[in-house]
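Exercise: predict the structure of this protein bound to iron/sulfur cluster.
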Amino acid sequence: MYAYKEYDQQLLDERVEQYRDQTQRFFKGELSEEEFLILRLQNGLYVQRHAPLLRVAVPYGMLNSNQVRKMAHIARTYDKGYAHISTRQNVQFNWPEMANVPDILAELASVQMHAVQTSGNCIRNTTTDQYAGVTANEVTDPRPYCEIIRQWSTFHPEFAYLPRKFKIAVTAATDEDRAAIRFNDVGLRLVKNDKDEIGFEVFVGGGLGRTPLAGSLIQEFLEPKHLLSYLEAVLRVYNLYGRRDNKYKARIKILVKALTPEVFRDKVAVEWERIKDGALDLPDAEIEAMQSCFPDPDYEILENNPASLVEAKSNSSAFSIWLRQNTAAHKKAGYQIVTLSLKPTSVAPGDVTDDQLDAIADLADRYSFGEVRNTHAQNIVLADVKQTELLALWEELKSLNFANANINTITDIICCPGGDFCALANAKSLPVAEQIQREFDDLDFVYDIGDISLNISGCMNACSHHHIGNIGVLGVDKKGLEFYQISLGGDAGFGASVGKIIGPSFKEAEVASVISKIINIYIENRIEGETFLMTYQRIGMSPFKEKVYAKNN
Amino acid sequence: MPKIIKGREVIEDQWVLVAEPSEELQTIEDDIHIIVPLSYWTDNKTAILARTGKAGIQVSGADELDSFSEDLDDIDVIAIDFPKFGDGRGYSMARLLRERHGYTSEIRATGDVLRDQLSFMERCGFDAYALRADRNMEDAIKSFSALTIAYQSDVVEPRPIYARRP
Ligand code: SF4
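Solution:
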């Protein structure tokens, strides 16, 4: 992965001192609450229900084992012993003291990490496919482009005070969009044209929250050398013309919708015309230089499906089920991508303890070239595991409670901290996740249901992307009581669709049984090989609605 | 005379901001350099230019640059006002004035301008800053050197980091 150059480190060290000074001025009363707010927000520090929340950036989800150990250390020393993996591949700490944050940032900087622009109305951490660089199903490794975007967007002087936050996601995958690029402010998809050249499809104006929208395609093939000039043109048009009078109408999606994607594209084109082929041009040499910052690890020459693996599979059905559910094919023969499930029942999805983090760092060192990736589904990936070592790894994961073979199943719930932690919540989300996990405790049935995504958000801010879960659950407030609205048919992938609300919302105690009914309708109606989403798309909402709201049912 | 930060130094401001020119202007000496709101400038260019003092305009991020870009040769200061520090439009405007329109005279930031913003403002083309009266300007100047590395192409350093690497 990318290793900091001297200037990256210097900038980060200076940033820590700058923030320390800002914090001191705040405590001395030289900065008002409101002024400090905007400064701390540019640095990932929110004030939550109980304590500040510090969001640490994990560029495109990649962490090395030293960084993971540092997360463990911070969780242990400055927090209550755990950290939370967010749906944007970042790491959050829920209990730091405001006065300690400069020290935490200094600790982070010592392992090339930071909290820069993880909140506030600026360009946020760029996200990508957690299988980037290791899946065979991609046109190229997207991470060098992510790093180019990271550098361009870090402390960009013109775009620090945008109308609203701005998120960019990149994928190069051909099989599935694991980065939900259509639901970002800008989504970039690396594609190959018929001349075998690489370029970007550019989507703009996607997003969730109050107005969920899939991004519109405004560039069908952007040559990589124009990546930054085009992004700069998009951001400039947004910075100048995005609404600033109403925070709920300030995201770029509202501007794109108001202007229409065509007019927005034309405005960007006019701006781009004047800056392209200028200073922001990315020469091939620079792209290649960045690509060389993401070398393949020292893979051995191995064969797929070694005898030891075949034997282990036939000896243990639990192992082979785990293999099927929690691992994915690797581009190199003899290697496998392994996902650690952070979703055992009754643990808040995405939470990891300090000891678990240390253990993950050790596993990374011993099994996967010392690197891990955070996923949007709030799990952790070891990307480069030798197939001969899968059995040994599985044994270790079991003892660490990471071997729940539930990846992409109904119990692999994506869930925000909700009312237990978040000041903005309308309702709790974690107890609902647990309730659903308990409802689906029969593993055979879980596997029979197959691939499905279930997302729970505690409010309209949609941090858990409930609109694009195949099943979405949203906490709503009804005259002071917590209710849950359920939507069906969301798709975060290339299909990019926003789920439809099934009908009136439900009491907390009803949620799991309603979901159970929904699943049963799918099981009754599916035809061979259909996932939940496919059945829903074929039969539509009515059968679900009828059953769920039927009297005496 | 009020003070202002210009070129990373605190100096006496040579300019008078005239918020209500239709009322105030007759009481101001003819050789005083004045900054007037864009709307007043648009309607009274000839009269303003007939004065012996120099002329500047005050605009905000909400104004279209095209509505005064023809007049840049006659304008010696452009004050970009920040009604709220979180309104970032002025940053784009300053950059466009420098990079697209080749404007070389003073661009100053007025309004809700905070010391922690000065360095980004400078990189977008501002060269003068009228901080709120309750702020310590000498202290604020330190903030220019807080971050010495910049990745981007900007007004101060047109080459992005990769073009500067040895
Ligand atoms: S969705 Fe709402 S409740 Fe959940 S973390 Fe986001 S803001 Fe908080």
